[in-house]
Design a protein that fits this description.
L-amino peptidase D-ALA esterase/amidase, Ubiquitin-like (UB roll), 32% helix, nine-stranded mixed β-sheet, homodimer, alpha+beta
Chain lengths: 407, 407
């Protein structure tokens, strides 16, 4: 497995583009619509938010994915198209205009949105921009770059990755772009993530691999505990790598799923690290748990704790807040069997053993927690299961961004 | 029912005091130990945090409350005595020293703590201060005032209330002091609340009334979603009002429970309004729900949403975040049947009808949300149940306070 450039255009037979069409009226510089298109029909799968309030595009996509096939994904980053008038009709209009440009059926076009909730999607504005968007499609890295930029909102860093691996004797590519930042506490998919691959794989196996992957990547991050109405993670597989098509859970499936997980975990980490206003990526590793689910519940409670996030912002080794967050997670465990340590590039320091505080070097702890990437290592005495979750600190900047997001 | 002065000393036969004994070494001005004492044995009841990680005082109190009786409560506000060495032994030592001064059994003394988690309770420091603490006990309003000040940590406002009502033909008094501020998302009791009454009521009925009360008051507030290890709400009833002792759920019980709820709801609101760094008290009223539980789940999700809290901080009428928080609450409801309005002393404004955004006067909305107390009114189309919850906004100040709490 090798990390490469090219994002969603790294796989054979995929093109992408992103331009400003005016969904966001405020900033004419900001690209706001992206398109990812495949030269041939693809196996496709997607997972969506479990929020009971769902964006309209999710209903459209579910229809369009009934046959497990798709050709393109169109995304706007200015309007959530959630709780808005004519949501489904507007989403469908955009799919139709993209299909007309690509010469495929509207049912082969998926759509996703992110932005303000409750305002009508300016479908006609997007329609006006679609011809230029399609005309500029490129299968070079610059196409993926444009698309990755076009889906950003308050993100400060573009999330774009690709890798190459060998499956069934053929070189296979996998790439993705994502956006995160705020309203990130995914429950099923995450804010927005689009993956492409030239691997030959059936729609059923692709869906299976995507579900496995989302569980251990995007569903294990949190920025602010707010599960969005728009979370979407979708993948297109066009089969152009020429490997024997994966139609069952064989060794090739495992190799593909491992590659997909590696890619998605990196994208998820990048999302957590670039949480709105964040200064620290927090990795929480829970080991010695009675099950992976138990470790995950405890770890997610820790990375979601506002007080723990504030402590990390202040580089304060306040491990009591970590144990406290574990305690209210709803998971049962023996507090007297808990060890906690903080670690980073600057070293590691045990701060709690068997549920009791240790005397530790406060200066070293401060240095460790001042690093941009910090780990909270929690060891239980319940069993041997382990889980890693990712979050970020909460900062003045988060408040500033979200005190004035809509206006 | 009439609001009166005097806090926990408003009821006949109760004394209180609060002094600096040095549990908090940093600030010699800050009172840090409080004592509430009754002249005669009291019926007593308490509820505690449901956090799996519990402060040591909770285990001691449960023992001491087995007979449903108590005479005094001693509280320190510098050390949580949670996850700390010798937690139970130290708590017991403090009870013993108080009992020696008051001439009662150590089993009649309850204890509570709040402060940093994981450091050993300086029991000997507290023991040294107990004689002066007991000697200064007063049944005037100044005694309650000293105790209310001594239990404060990052609170900016003292929480102290009392009321007078008639039960069984006798004038009965009920008073309380509380602390809130951070790590407030009570699940059973709240951070710390101590209530006294001269009403004659059995321990069993007192417990029943306390449970009913906590459910509709302290359990309906949130500051930061972090359920503390130390939440404690306890009540002492000395019977000195001379009413016929309440031993069953009769009319007198109802009158007592109503008075207790009125007092507790005001204390809970005060805690939410004085949440760490808060500039706004947020009252969320959910009506038209299928059950009170459903309304409560939805309302608590809204007041706990970091993004909603940040929007109120910015006086931004971002109702999409309210609907989004309802959507991820886990409660089922029809999003297309939801109306939302914002209200305050400056007026009220509907912003969402049947799940869709309304065109509204942004200037008026801003004026409404700039008031210190704002309401989020949510109306569902599921039934006729209703619930009110209280929270606060999240501010730069919250981050500042919690980025550097321990050191």
């Amino acid at each position: 497995m090798k990390w490469i450039d090219g994002g969603v255009c790294a796989a054979e037979g995929f093109q992408a583009n992103g331009i400003h069409v005016g969904v966001k009226s405020r900033n004419a510089e900001k690209k706001d619509v992206a398109l990812i298109a495949a030269q041939v029909p693809c196996s496709a799968a997607a997972v969506y938010t479990k929020n009971a309030v769902k964006a309209a595009h999710i209903l459209i996509d579910r229809e369009h994915l009934k046959n497990g096939q798709a050709r393109a994904v169109v995304i706007n980053s200015g309007n959530a198209n959630a709780c808005a008038a004519n949501g489904e009709a507007n989403a469908l209009r955009v799919c139709q205009s993209v299909a007309a440009q690509l010469g495929c059926s509207p049912e082969d076009v998926l759509i996703a949105s992110t932005g303000v909730i409750g305002q009508e999607l300016p479908a006609s504005v997007i329609e006006t921009g679609v011809p230029a968007l399609a005309a500029g499609l490129s299968h070079t890295a610059s196409g993926s770059d444009a698309a990755a930029n076009a889906i950003m909102t308050t993100d400060t860093v573009k999330k774009e990755l690709a890798l190459e691996t060998v499956i069934g004797g053929k070189t296979v590519h996998l790439g993705g772009i994502a956006k995160g930042s705020g309203m990130i506490h995914p429950n099923m998919g995450t804010m927005l993530c689009f993956l492409t691959t030239d691997c030959a794989i059936s729609a059923a196996m692709l869906r299976e691999a995507l579900l496995e992957t989302v569980t251990v990547s995007f569903n294990r991050i949190s920025v602010d505990g707010d599960t969005s109405t728009n979370d979407t993670c979708c993948i297109l597989a066009n089969g152009m790598a020429g490997n024997a098509c994966i139609t069952e859970k064989n060794g090739d499936y495992t190799a593909f799923a491992e590659a997909l997980k590696a890619l998605s975990v990196r994208l998820a980490r990048a999302m957590a690290a670039d949480g709105e206003g964040a200064k620290h990526l927090i990795t929480c590793i829970v080991s010695g748990a009675k099950s992976v689910e138990s470790a995950e519940t405890l770890g997610k409670s820790v990375i979601s704790s506002t007080l723990t996030k504030a402590a990390i912002f202040g580089a304060d080794a306040n491990w009591g807040r970590v144990l406290c967050a574990m305690g209210y997670s709803g998971e049962s465990f023996d507090p007297d069997g808990v060890d906690i340590a903080f670690a980073s590039a600057a070293g590691s320091i045990p701060v709690c053993e068997k549920g009791r505080g240790l005397v530790f070097d406060e200066e070293l702890a401060k240095r460790i927690l001042t690093e941009p990437e910090v780990e909270i290592r929690i060891s239980l005495s319940e069993g041997s299961a382990e889980c890693t979750c990712w979050g970020c600190d909460i900062t003045y900047e988060y408040i500033r961004i979200n005190g004035d997001y809509r206006t």
